[in-house]
């Protein structure tokens, strides 16, 4: 549980085997910041632009070879 002391937020009570106790939070600690995970796109989405760039590079190389008479 938290309690507000003026402008400060303090830990008032930590229950046994709670996530707060497991994180090592103790009685009467001051809460200075709250961190939340940022919403990010999945890491697999990086492959889409990579494949598009590779396709564009391949197309450009074939075009240059055709113009130079190598194909």
TrEMBL record:
Pfam families: DUF3394. This is TRAP-type uncharacterized transport system fused permease component. It comes from Photobacterium aphoticum.
């Amino acid at each position: 549980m938290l309690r507000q002391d003026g402008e400060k937020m303090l830990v008032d009570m930590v229950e046994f085997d709670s996530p707060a106790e497991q994180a090592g939070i103790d009685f009467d600690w001051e809460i200075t910041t709250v961190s939340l995970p940022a919403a990010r796109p999945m890491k697999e989405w990086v492959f889409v632009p990579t494949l598009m760039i590779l396709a564009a590079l391949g197309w450009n190389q074939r075009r240059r070879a055709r113009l130079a008479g190598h194909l």
